[in-house]
Every structure is written in structure tokens, then in C-alpha cells.
Amino acid sequence: MLRRYGLTDLSIKIGRVKFQNPVLVASGTFGYAEEYAQLIDLDRLGGVITKTITLNPREGNPPPRTCETPSGMLNAIGLANVGVSRFVKEKLPFLKKLETKIIVNVAGSTPEEYVKVIKRLNRVKGIHMLEINISCPNVKEGGMHFGATEESAYNITKLIRENTPYPLMVKLSPNVTDITKIALAVQEAGCDAISLINTLVGMAIDSETKKPLLANVTGGLSGPAVKPVALAMVWQLAQKVKVPIVGIGGIMDTKDALEFLLAGASMIQIGTANFVDPRTSIKIIDGLKDYCEENKMKKIKELVGKLKT
Amino acid sequence: MILQQKIPIISCERINPLFFRLRFFYPRIARESNPGNFVHIRINENNFPLLRRAFSIHKLVREKGTFDILFKVVGPGTRLLSQKKPGQELDILGPLGNSFSFPKKSSSEILLVAGGMGVAPLLFLASEFSREKKFDSSKITFLYGVKNKDELLCLRELKNLGLEVLFATEDGTQGFKGMVTQLFLNRMKRSSKPKKVKVFACGPPAMLKSMSQLSRDYDFDCEVSLENHMPCGLGACMGCVVKCGKKNKFEYKRVCQEGPIFNAQEVWLD
Q: What is the CATH topology of the domain spanning A12-303?
């Protein structure tokens, strides 16, 4: 017990939200958290990020929706979700009871849709932050076009900023020419944090049948295969932006998490690893704690951006 | 209750160069599993293969706390799994998914239709029927189809169940020559009350697609056990969906959560 609740301070603050540790579970890989309740102590997480919520329920893309690739996987789920009304009625009551921070990931096909979802969420209790998805590569309405240029990224973030009191994290796509420009634009528009990377557009083909392995033809690549790309982008952003950076991309263990913190991420998100081992996030929280204690660090914050170049 | 545990392999049986049976020791899973349930296995700790693989529970001995999976080597994941040795431990999630529903009336005529590896969960189901005294084993028939007789598995186990077993081979090397679905249709035509027959089927996608179509065409009660790529196995990722519903009103259901057992009339397979 002493080890777990020892002297090291793992907490991280973004805006007015204080997270007990820097480990979040990434949107789309953790459902609405209830799916993992039998397997891990959800209260120990730094925070839970929900599946992307849209205004109306979405059935998602036709199957097959996923396939494994070397050290990674492709998905084209298509933002299948229950829609904001059912989310509030059926999923939020469970999330509210957790002793961790709840971040709702939001997307829309138009700016008005984003605003409608957010206004619905403004009226409820139990949500600590929003993550704005302007980076889903798999549906036209997934927001990637909002994240594709500085101007559209600025406009959508600004519009959302004006319509909600919640702290905002904006999730960026790596499928752009220069991610630092998009990051500066959303910072300028008033976001409180930037999370990256969403998946890289990829595809896989069965040469025997001459068919793509995903019905959607292309999908989003995630897992250890994308980690070097994600690390580089986190590091690039760390040189340019002032708001906290939340690193995502193929984090499988404590060592990976430390690399992201060194590159400049204040927090991290665990995505694909939740499928491989549902306990990954808990193991990383323990691992970070051990690392801090072994290195006689009082606060994990001391590690952020300490890359020696 | 879903468990995640490191579970020891207690035996690894090489049935032939392509087919293997692993036996695990974990009493809680053995106790809590029902026919149709599956386990999600992490084959390697070094992230290759990255994702878990799902296997239906093929056999279990509750008294001894063991459960088995039966698999064919089809790719690098199953190849690695086939090389595991007794004493090694694997990270297993389970039991997962729903299970076959037992016929309410013990007098029902029951047909189990297995194609290839589909024998794995159906053998478990058949053995539960024979364990439960209320089922009349003379009314249960096990139909089992493969390409050629060398692929027939579990023959001794099937024989020990004391059920009628009919074989179909595509090349005619044993039993009926042709597809198991044709053998099934022939058998249904012999039945006095075809609409009262309860059918359970598991096999390759093309076979299940035709079982599903037949169940609609002839309106019989059939449950199919489906397979799919399952990144999480827990209902979180929405990756393993199958099209379900009635004409003009479809929805996607998760094979890992609402399945893997579905009403055959309800699923639309590609």
C-alpha cells in the first residue's frame, strides 16, 4: 500500500482539472469503461476517455472493420456509438460513479452538430473535460476535414470554446503536412490541451482474393508500429506549443510511457494496448510510480520534456 | 464473471501436422463456462502477434478443472500456439460471449451441424446434452462435414457420446459425398416435424451463410456460432460486428458480446 500511495506525486493538472496520474485510456479502445469494469480497478486510472459521441446514434462502417498488421492493427469502425442522448441516459450514470476523471470525446459532421452535442453535455454533471475529435480518418463526418487545415481547425475549436465551459483537449491527426501548424491554430483558438496522434491512414490487401482486408478499404493504423511517428510529432509540438501535450501512439508499457513524457507529453493515452492486455494502463501507473521512486523524483512533472538533445 | 489469468497448459496434443488440442488447468473457467463461450488468448508476450486470438471452448472436465481448445494452424499466430509446451502459461481472458440455448422441451429432435473446425464448440454442446439425462440421445444427431476423411477429428469422443453421427466429405472418402449442408437438408426432409427440429451449427463462413439462408427459407429454429476478428473480445472496440435484423431493418451486433451465438434467421453473412 505504501508503495502505491507513497511520496511520489504522479498528479498532472490540465486547465482546472487535476488528474491523479498521467495515464488516460484512449477513445475508441475502452468503450464506455463499463466493458472493462470486471477486469481492472477503473478508479485507479488518471482518466477515462469515452468512445466518440455524435449527435445521432451511428451504426458504423460495414465489416470487416479491423485487421492485424505487423506490430499494429488497422481499424475502420466508423464512429459507431449510441449518440449523445443515449450516452447521457445509459452510459454516463456508470461513468459518474467512478473516482476518476471523465473525458467525453466528441465529433460531428458539421460545426452545428459539434455544438449541439456539446450543449447537451453542458447540461449534465459528471464530465470533467471534452476531447474534440477533429481527426477520425474513417468517416466523412469524423471531423478529419476539420483537422486538415489551420483555418478549419482554428474555427471549429474557437466555436466549441465559445459554447462550453468544459476544459478542451483537441485530438489531432498525423495525416497532415505540418502538425505543428494545426497545433498552434487550436492553441490560438483556446484549447487547454492537445492530444496526438490519432491513427495514420493505412490499408491492407489480400493478394489472393485481390480484395482489401477492410470493407472501408482504408483504415487507421495504431499500435507499436506508429510509436516512432507519434513520438516525433509529440517532440515537434513540444518545441512550439505552450498548452500541455497528451501523447498517444503505440504505448505498450512503462518504458514507452516514459519516452513520451521525455519527448514532452504531460500525459499519455493507452489505446491499442487495452486490447492486448486490459491491465496495461494499471501496470504503467505502477511502473511510473516505481520509476519516480527509484530515481528519487518527487513529482512526475519533473520528467516532462527532459529529453537530452 | 470475466477473468484475466495466466493459465498453465497441461497438455498439447498434436492430432496431425495441422490440428492441435491444448488443455488448460483453471477450475473457475472450467466451472463457469457453457457451450458456445470462448476464451481470448494472448499468444505471445512480445507483441507478435499483437492481438489476442479467440477460441471457442471445445471440451471441459469440471471435476478436474480443465478446459480444452481445438485449433487448426492457419497463420503465424496459430503456428506459435501449436509450439507451446505443457507447463507454459498463457494470458487468457474468459469465459466470454453468450452460449447456446438448450431446447426447452427434452423431447425435441436436435441436429448439430459441424463443418471443419466447427466441431470444436459443438462437441462441447453435444457432451452437455449427453450429460443431462433429460435429453433423449436417440433424438440427437451430429452431422459432421470436412473436405476429406483425414480432417475428421474427435471421432472417439463422438462415438463415446452415443449419438447418431453422420459424416459428409467433399471427396466422398467417408460417408455422404458432398457438403454437410446438403447432408443436413436430406436429413431434415426425413424428419417428421421439420419445424420442431432444433439446429445448432458451426463452421466456415460459407457454410454458416448457407445455414442462415436455409433457416429463413425453411423456417426452422437454428443457432449458429460465428467467428470474427476480435481486437478486444469485451464489447469495447466495436470491431467484430455482424449484420443482424430483418429486411430493411438492420443493425450491427458484436460477435464478442451479443454473440458468438446468434439466431441463424437473424444474421446476414457475406
A: TIM Barrel (3.20.20)
pTM to 2 decimal places:
0.96
Name the A residues in 190-229 with CB < 8 Å from any B CB: 223-224
What's phi and psi for A291, nearest 5 deg?
Answer: -60, -45
Going from N- to C-terminal start, the domains of chain B cover 3-96, 110-268
| Digit-coded pLDDT (tens) for B199-237 | 999 999 999 999 999 999 999 999 999 999 999 999 999
Give me the helix-helix angle, A150-163 and A179-188, nearest 10°: 30
Quote ipTM for the complex: 0.95
- What are the Cα distances from residue B106, in Å, to A141, B102, B136? 52, 9, 7
**Closest Cα in chain A, distance from residue B72 (Å):** 19
Q: Which CATH code of 3.40.50.80, 1.10.443.10, 3.40.50.1110, 3.60.10.10 fits the domain covering B110-268?
A: 3.40.50.80
Nearest CA in chain A to B254: A63
Residue A31 DSSP label: T
The reply to whether A136 belongs to the active site is: yes
CA A251 to chain centroid: 12
Q: CB of B6 within 8 Å of any CB in chain A?
A: no
Restricting to A residues 270-299, those with a Cβ less than 8 Å away from any Cβ of B are: 272, 274-279
- Which CATH superfamily includes the segment(s) B3-96? Translation factors (2.40.30.10)
